[in-house]
Amino acid sequence: MNLKPLLLTLTLLLLTACSPNNPNPTKSFRHTSSTPKSTEAILKLDTKGHTGLIKDIIVTKSGDIISASDDKTIRVWDSATGKEKRKILGQIGAGGEGMIYAMALSPNEKFLAIGGFILGSGKDGSRAGAIRIYNYQTGKLLKVLKSHTDIVNDLAFSSDGKYLISGSSDRTAKIWSGKTFKLIATIKFHTNYVYAVKIIKKANRYFAITAGYDNRIALYNMQTKKVIKSDRKSYKLSDLALSTNHIAVCGFGNEIQIYDYSLNPIKTIRSETKPVGLAYSPNGEFLIAGVGDYPDNVNIYNVHRDYKKIQSFKKHKNLVQAVAFLNNFIAVSGGGNNSEIYIWDIATGVVKRKIEGVGARVWSTGVYKDSIAWGNILDIKEKNKNATFRKSINLKNFSIRSSINQNFKRISTTNGAYSLIHRRGGNYGYSDGILDIKKSGKTITSIIRDGTNGLRHHCYGFYKNYIISGGANGHLKIYNLKGQEVANLVGHTGEVWSIGLDGDRLVSGSDDQTIRIWNLSKLKRQMQPQLNLFISKNNEWIAWTPEGFYNASKGGEKYIGYHINQGSNKEARFLDISRFRKQFYRPDLITKALNGEDISHYAQAIDIDSILRDGGGLPPKIEILTDSTTISSDTIEIGVNICDMGGGFDNLNFYVDGKAVAYMSQTKAFRVKKEQVKNCTLIEQKIPLAGGKHTIGFDATNKKGNIISNTPTISVVSTKREVQKPNLHLLTLSINDYSDDELDLKFPNNDAKELSSRLKTIGKPIFEHVYTYALKDSQVTIKQIDTKVEEIAKRVKPNDVFVLYISGHGITNESDGDYYFIPYDCPNGADVTKKAINQLAFKKITSRINTPKTVILLDTCQSGSMASQDLVNTSVNRFGGNTGVAIIAGASSRENAIDGYKKHGIFTYTVLDAMSNKKVYSFDNKLSINEVAEYTKFLLPKIAKEKFHHEQNPTIYMNGDTSFAIGGI
Fold first, then answer.
1. Contact present, 887 and 936 (Cβ < 8 Å)
2. Which of 471, 585, 677, 720 would be a feasible disulfide site paired with 475, CB 3.0-4.6 Å?
3. H or E element, residue 349
4. Residue 675 burial (CB count, 10 A)
5. Which pLDDT band holds residue 380 (cuts at 50, 70, 90)?
6. pLDDT digit string (tens) for 749-800?
7. Structural domains of the chain ordered from first start
8. What is the pTM of this model?
């Protein structure tokens, strides 16, 4: 089990082995020219969920969930959809530097305070204990508080926001102004780490509550600056919660102690587990407790029934430290084996939503020659060291199989007369804190684990005449038979649970959801992996070297990127690795690395600073100046501050629920109010909204337009009721007769006409009106398309549906990978980059249509590049990824589309057939674009193969909620 005590002991002292002076397990680049001073890029995994223990959870007034993790990220989630809205990032480094252990949000939700293993305290800036103060709405780092001399374990604002309190492993608690953040007082009562802090207010006086590893809880009068009462338990204390009149505290005991505001004990709640992470419901009627030891029960207690336990939630399968309430009856808990977040009903235990990434903890690893086996599921009976292998991957071709043979080798705990066995002990008395090396059954020496070398021996075995052991906090070490450390394998960032060994090849699996591959043929004091491997639950994968070179499956490269440090006093940023594909996508170097070749010299020629410079520098930074709000109208005016970070800025886009609703270009007129500060401009934009809850977001590009900045979002609720059904707007672009006769086709115009007729018929039950707009043959030019879109944009309402249908010739350009539609006046053989219409142009067109519900249907050759998810560094990625449209392309990026099946293009025929086939419609007699896509995906390849002996496969990209209806019966 991943126990609370293990993770509560991460002090600066104990993290000496993973201090910033040790080699960084990820590639780090420093910049000196086009990017701000102190900028640093660190390669980091992003599985679209947490990969480390979730340490804290906050629920905002709007229902968003903020989670903080050992993986050094803060993520903001939409509780209604489970989707990540944004990240809040700061300076990180090697080992534990940047781990986040505590958060506090001010009552007005303006300030977010962050604590953990954060450097910046002390004159030399080397001691961990700084507190970051962010503007929660914008993500901007406002202040760094520097007084603690060890990690910060807990933070809390007073109920009125007047004060902030922090608790640290330096054995002090500190009280700060909640407005200026100046230090007001330091509490030096405790004799061990301070792990929990709160501020209470009674009779207009303020008191601090502190609890720690000295087993004591104390009541501190903030006016007299004295501890006026304390109590001692028989175990270490780690967590506090406050209701309007009760204080709850727990720690390493099997109980929760309840006090009144004068620190008089009033109730002891006995627990079958070790409770951690306490929280009261907003009305104070319920108390939730996380879990620090088996059984993994997250418990709910009814305060008004003398704290009777009313629910045990058992979905998590490991430590759950972060708990909160979404409202008075819905709980939120984060943790378990895969750092998941559950939202659940406290009365029934029924899960409302589960939030997690695409990865999973690696419990088992085995290796045989060039193949690796692993398992992500732990059977308690297997005691994790022999957890079942579930899948395997071949490192030659990265093919994945579900069937596992018996040849995969785990590390052995015996070697001739030598054997290994763990026992209880070490600094914290863990069951595997000591590893005994035995010869002929007699212990000859022991390896004792503490906070500097991994705390525990989770997995271990022999390599030749050496011992390898994996433990906590990413520690994987090699010892000789005397128990002396001879090598430190630096790579993992979480608990190392499994080891496989075949010859000189070692593989290891971890909490961090990665498999690391090591070459032990030449042992060195500090070693990095040959290769790092992440494999998602749906078998997407990415493999990368410490230098940053990678190979990936289709869609796999979105799971790593560069965390851009900008100094300890600035917020950090994140750019996915696809922005650097040209330099780092090197399958050939992955093969070399696996063959044992040193590829470090290939990285020496790469300067990431110059890459950013060639790409125009960092993208601009956007600060939202409008707070989340409720409006009664159908528009909201949004204020945005856009700041040049060295690369200038060109495009600024506004999004509602993932769909671009306003597009601005620097070459056009911005609605600029005034210059704010140097290099920053204030922009205001009116955004139309339908009734209901919406998320408004933004992105921006630098002058070269090839790096995107993902920015914060705001939530807006429009109470305006829609009294009218939505409308459907269909724009068809079709060409039979090109200016160049060699390009003429037979059926596009007929297809467009039939599609218009069919949508008018099936649209009657769903829409108020179905408006059709047709451009054909000589009318299909960029100028006339632009004019027609302008006409449509004036009529579209926010809850309408827009469908764009394109039929004619299309091509994927070899040089840039972009899709180009051939307009009427583009002759055969012309340079398509100058004469044709590419996908960026279509993005600009559709972004002017103010509805989040957009469908694009393409019946042309090679149209799949418009919808492809794995094309990167092209405008299609921005088009598909950011607008939230549903794109259904009739062929892949390399296939031709058949024009001539029952007087239709084969793709359009299948779309029309879906609209006519009542079996395709859902149970409510409605036809969604999802159902059209699935039907086309099934029928089109079948017809192409059976009737034409031709390969034609639709390419589909769905972003956001594409379950909306386009027709009905």
1. no
2. 471
3. none
4. 10
5. low
6. 999 999 999 999 999 999 999 999 999 999 999 889 989 998 998 888 877 8
7. 56-355 (2.130.10.10), 369-539 (2.130.10.10), 550-605 (no CATH), 621-718 (2.60.40.10), 728-968 (3.40.50.1460)
8. 0.67
